[in-house]
Amino acid sequence: MGQEIRPIETDTTDQQEITLNKDAKNPKKAALLSAILPGAGQVYNEKPWKVPIIYGGIITNLYFVDFNNRRYQLFKEALIIYRDDDDSTENLFPNLNEDGLIRNVDYWRRNRDATYLIFGAIYALNIVDAIVDAHLSGFDVSDDLTLKVQPSVESMYASGNSVGISIKLKF
User: What CA–CA distance (Å, rounded) separates 90 from 80?
Assistant: First the structure.
């Protein structure tokens, strides 16, 4: 009748302590550095190989901003010339009517504006990358990490057994 109540025993050999690395970086400092000078947060996080990628994206985007803006200005000028009643000015695009010129002006303006948005996205991703990298710098990645893919058989309530593949990640 009398049941004995025993405390639950835990196996302490399977428990691991999580300790932060002493080389952990401050995410706020990394974000501030990247906001002031793109790539500075990556250098602070000791990942200087990312800096050429960031500046490559910025320089490429600046090229496309300039290219799209030049095309926009050209078609805008052609539209102004087309609309004036002065016969002494020569139409820059004689094969295009007013509707074609308007479509081109709108097209190149949209492209230019989109490249401005892409520039903002590159700048924001630079900051986000610095923050995430600083957060992850404090975690110890040991050699005990394993990923196993193996076949598995599981019993299901309604349909008997189910055969499949299981992916197991061991920390």
Answer: 11
